[in-house]
What does this fold into?
Amino acid sequence: MRIGIIGSGALGALYGAFLAKTGYDVHFLMRSDFETVCQKGLTVHSPLGDFHLDKVNCYNDVHQMPAVDIVFVGLKTTANQHYEALISPLMGHDTRVICAQNGLGNDERLAQLFGPLRVAGAVAFLCSNRSQPGVIDHLDYGHIHLGNYQRLPDQILQRFAEMFVSAGVDCKIVDNLAEARWKKLVWNVPFNGLSALLDKPVNEIMADPQLRNRCQILMKEVQSAAALWNINITGDFLKLMMDYTNKMKPYLTSMHLDRRNGKPLETDAIIGEPLKRALEKGKILPEMQKLFEGLKAIG
It folds into this structure.
């Protein structure tokens, strides 16, 4: 099974590197890291064990890449307008597009472009940063859930999960991808959102009682919005996310780093889209609305 990684940043490059290290046929589309990785390879620092890939199948032009069996999409959602241009050249007769992006709405857009039977999703709980060109720092966690878009898992998805497991990645199959997406928002909305808005790392947010309480309010708003779409997120799950975050090593979220680096923020996909879906059901989420407006004001 041949894998193409589109969006070879802190998430895509890490998971692709784990697969490549294990001997799988992985091809990376790279832009800013291309020259460095061509010359020096790809380095991963990880609690699962550091490693270096001397030879990497990397490209700076998608048209030079071969057709693949799986396109693993790790793009920032601010680049979604490039879906068709970046993914279409890699599509074979049975290619599956697996979206590992944050937020809501991405799977639907991919299904419009390539058909719902071609689309699946990956939901990762991961602390990882691209510290410099060709170097990925995997700091903590890293488990990933795979699910098909609007249908039950199949053999292709099962095979991909088995590849991750053989590469040392904790990977599980889920029957309900939409539920997994909303559950990821329980963490992403408060911690990606507030870290970017306030320019504070996660550990500083957790150390401040007022901000910690604000996170819990945001989590409950995500929980209430999900319920409008018949997705049950339990109070125990909210507590689990707080427990995970308490134990997390000091970490700068992806949105926080984007703000510091002057890049566009994933505000629409992570916060705007769930807000919109709640409003479609007549539900107002005041704390999320305040967060959304604050983030929009800074970019």
